Automatic annotation (TrEMBL):
Pfam (any one): PhyH
EC number(s) from the headed UniProt entry: 1.14.11.55
Protein name: Ectoine hydroxylase
Transmembrane regions: none
Catalytic reaction list: L-ectoine + 2-oxoglutarate + O2 = 5-hydroxyectoine + succinate + CO2
Quaternary structure, from the entry: Homodimer.
Lineage: Bacteria, Pseudomonadati, Pseudomonadota, Gammaproteobacteria, Moraxellales
UniProt-listed PANTHER family: ECTOINE DIOXYGENASE, PHYTANOYL-COA DIOXYGENASE DOMAIN CONTAINING 1
Family indicated by similarity: Belongs to the PhyH family. EctD subfamily.
Function statement: Involved in the biosynthesis of 5-hydroxyectoine, called compatible solute, which helps organisms to survive extreme osmotic stress by acting as a highly soluble organic osmolyte. Catalyzes the 2-oxoglutarate-dependent selective hydroxylation of L-ectoine to yield (4S,5S)-5-hydroxyectoine.
Organism whose genome encodes this protein: Acinetobacter venetianus (strain ATCC 31012 / DSM 23050 / BCRC 14357 / CCUG 45561 / CIP 110063 / KCTC 2702 / LMG 19082 / RAG-1)
Amino acid sequence: MQMSNPYLTRRNDSAAIVARVDPVVYEESITQGVSEQQKQDYAKNGFLQIDHLFSAEEVKYLLDELHQMRQDFAVQQRPEAIIERESQEVRSIFNVHRLNEVFKNLVSDERVLNVARSLLGSEVYVHQSRINYKPGLHGKEFFWHSDFETWHSEDGMPRMRALSCSILLTDNSEHNGPLLVIPGSHKHYISCQGETPDEHYKKSLKKQEYGVPDGSLLEYLADMGGIHSCTGLAGSVVFFDCNLMHGSNSNITPFSRSNIFFVYNSIDNQLQQPLGGIKPRPEFIAAREDIDAIQPNNLEL
Ligand code: 6CS
Ligand code: FE
């Protein structure tokens, strides 16, 4: 008998908090990508920050590529480019690991890939990649959410066996909208109210209004775990669990907060049908085709 779905959400107008039933760190570790202490910290907090993973030269090389993509008018016209409503600046570009050779290599860089393979305890593939530019003066916020709540309901991701790898390509200070997380929140699943509108991604990637946690449940999690800001110098990397409650403030400083995100999903956790019979989201947001385990490389960037 098929086990009932423990992660139902957006079914009616009631919000709820349920316990996570999946492991955080999967024991069948297939490579030594992290230390035992790092595994324990990640299991407890739901995130792991590794500073100075990429050199200043590598960061400059990647940042040039980032700016090149943003200037590329052809890219700006593609559906993968999400434009800020007010400023009309590029907010994000999705699917960069398939659009760009440099970022295609970067996803298989053993310094990040082996952390994902180790924590997820399996071979992995990229569910989604994106650059969030969060430009100076006009970069808008990303309200609190659990990525898994979206990926489960809108993409049909079965279980919590995925993580995001955020590579900081500009300094993320207290002031320019660093990633905010609620440590420990990954152990609780917030089932959200409301019903997913058709083609929700056309709005949610600019400003998410569904799959947003109920304020009192958000307060409950924050009272329990506090709020931590993942500040760090460019070249640092933050790995965070798919169900960690996170968000980030808008950026009114003149200094961009540009990070590249790779979402590694276990090869054993590939997408099924979304909840509620909605249409699956496009391939550039949620990979369903040509799924292969990524093999690590130690190529010179
Ligand atoms: O809908 C998504 O997949 C995206 N939305 C957010 C706010 N974070 C994860 C992901 O980029
Ligand atoms: Fe997110």
